[in-house]
Amino acid sequence: MYILLFALLLMAVGAVVTGIIALEPVTAARNKKANTLGPGIAAVSCLLGLIGIFTSGWSSIDTFQMSWGLPFGALAFGLDPLSRLFLLPVFVLGLSCALAGGISLRHTDPEEHNLGAHWAFYLVLLLGMTCVMTARDGLFFMLSWELMSLSPFFLIDFNDRDRNVQDASWVYLVAAHLGAVFLIAFFAMLWQESGSTLFSVMASK
């Protein structure tokens, strides 16, 4: 479990680092730096994630929980056979796309695209998907869901000079948040019934 948590931390740090690069004026050198760090950190994180889901055995159930200082909710993570099954394609495809993306974006024109922003949102997407699969608290799940659903909007909009791409990104954003509205209502009812946002308590009621 701790290897997986380290992979999550690495994704978060990578998103911050590439995000800082994105805030600087875009140059060929900064794009090259982002295109080295971004896919490199993503690939290492996915490799660590793959190691993490197999380390303690496929059928084992692992949990980690800590308070995050808010009046409700908690940073509650869990691994079980089902979450491992869903995490497997996340990490395999995440690794493959990071390597393929790093190669295909090598000669990107800095006047057209900011690769720091691209890789920051890619790492946020990986972070969000991993947290969604491992969240064991309703509030934490919804925050992770927002990370997972918002970051693709910016990735889809990468070729923002194309009107069709712009339209597609907004259609995606609306559809993703329609689903989020129903999830919020679902968790609100469970929270009212159980008095807790933890999945373990909700399941016991």
Describe this structure in words.
- The chain has helices spanning 2-23, 28-55, 81-104, 115-134, 138-156, 163-194, 199-204; strands at residues 62-66, 75-79.
- It is mainly alpha-helical and 205 residues long.
- A two-stranded antiparallel ribbon has the order 1-2.
- A hairpin with an 8-residue loop joins strand 1 (62-66) and strand 2.
- Helix 1 packs antiparallel against helix 2 (28-55) and helix 3 (81-104) packs antiparallel against helix 4 (115-134).
- The longest helix is centred in the C-terminal third of the chain and has 32 residues, at 163-194.
- It starts with a helix and ends with a helix.
- The relative contact order is 0.14.
